[in-house]
Design brief:
The chain is of the alpha/beta class. The chain is built from 15 helices and nine strands. Strands 4-7-8-9 form a four-stranded parallel sheet. The protein has a three-stranded mixed sheet with strand order 2-1-3. It is elongated. It holds the Pfam family NRDD.
């Protein structure tokens, strides 16, 4: 059957809109399969279809529908012919409904379940989510009109899925990005009307990261990531250590100074990483959702970097709030490297074991 239809591939097909596309044999096969025809009935119809268009310079979608309908009736398949016509009408009506902005806005205002609960990460009871849903249903309707007809209808049928149709292709936003935190934290950055200087402590560094994440998440519709966060934040934790060591040299006996400074720094690191976890999980972007955030870590080897790694995992294992709930974000990606943390003799093997414990207790589906 496919072999016969491939004879028509070189003939263009003109849509109702006047747009021309190539002939796709699978579409004819798809329709015939849906009609439940026997193999012999399908072969007869295909043979007639090919002979009808073999010498044509152009096929129109109207002609294709008419030939298929006439061929079905010629084989006394009247019910199949009616089903085919009904299928076409339903396809057109579904596309018209999907691209009707007013109709889709009304669905939202009427609290249609499919509209208000389509994204489990969005609380449709809060105002910024409602505003985002309003923009989203309009963008979906307009986006389907912007897409090529074949793509839009394939999406509506479920043959393919156009990801984030409530933003793309209508809005010129980016999807996901790997944020260059190192550049911004090192050299400072501007958000709104404020110029933010390089942080002088790990607590300030994670607070600035939260602000950056909130702003980036509101300017795009996908996730944002922080790479090697243990190595990224280590210089700012070192500033904490130097401050505590200076205080220790003033108030603590000499043989206890380093130990004192380290313990104080470890507490600062834990508090900073805990604050980052809570900040991300209590933020709402302009899309009315928690920022999709991923942080990567695991390659650092210094005691400060190791402490950051341990703190991230221990905080996640502990959970959020008095109920100790599993945090949805940030997603944690722990890097495993031979000679560093893979095998029992590796220096950071204990942290890998902690990561495994974290995964078993706090893996979020």
């Amino acid at each position: 059957m496919t072999t016969q239809l491939t004879q028509l591939i070189g003939i263009p097909v003109e849509k109702r809109s006047g747009f021309k596309t190539k002939f796709y044999p699978y579409k004819i096969e798809f329709v015939l399969d849906k009609l439940g025809l026997s193999q012999n009935q399908q072969d007869n119809l295909i043979e007639n279809f090919v002979s009808e268009f073999l010498t044509a310079d152009l096929m129109t979608t109207k002609q294709i529908r008419q030939v298929i309908t006439d061929s079905l009736i010629a084989q006394n398949l009247n019910q199949a012919a009616k089903s085919y016509q009904d299928y076409f009408i339903n396809e057109q009506e579904r596309f018209a409904r999907a691209t009707n902005v007013k109709l889709n806005i009304e669905k939202l205002f009427n609290r249609n379940e499919q509209v208000v609960h389509e994204n489990a990460n969005k609380d449709s009871n809060i105002f910024n989510t409602q505003r985002d849903l309003e923009a989203g249903v309009a963008s979906k309707a307009l986006g389907l009109k912007m897409l090529p007809d074949i793509v839009a209808k394939a999406h509506l049928r479920g043959d393919i899925h156009w990801h984030d149709l409530d933003y793309s292709p209508v809005t010129p936003e980016t999807n996901c990005c790997l944020i260059d935190f190192d550049e911004m934290l090192t050299n400072g950055f501007k958000i709104g009307n404020a110029w933010v200087s390089s942080p002088k402590s790990i607590q300030t560094a994670t607070a600035q990261m939260s602000q950056i994440i909130a702003n980036v998440a509101s300017l795009q519709y996908g996730g944002c990531s922080a790479n090697r966060i243990d190595q990224l934040l280590a210089p700012y934790a070192k500033l904490n250590y130097q401050k505590h060591l200076k205080d220790a040299q003033k108030w603590i006996v000499e043989d206890k100074q380093i130990e004192f400074a380290k313990e104080k720094t470890k507490k600062d690191i834990y508090d900073a990483m805990q604050a980052l976890e809570y900040e991300i999980n209590t933020l709402y972007s302009s899309q009315g959702q928690t920022p999709f955030t991923t942080i990567n870590f695991g390659l650092g080897m210094s005691w400060i970097e190791r402490t950051i790694q341990k703190s991230i995992l221990e905080i996640r294992i502990k959970g959020l709030g008095k109920e100790h709930r599993t945090a949805i974000f940030p997603k944690l990606t722990f890097t495993i490297k031979r000679g560093l943390n893979l095998n029992p003799e590796d220096p950071n093997y204990d942290i890998k074991q902690l990561a495994l414990e974290c995964s078993t207790k706090r893996m979020y589906p």
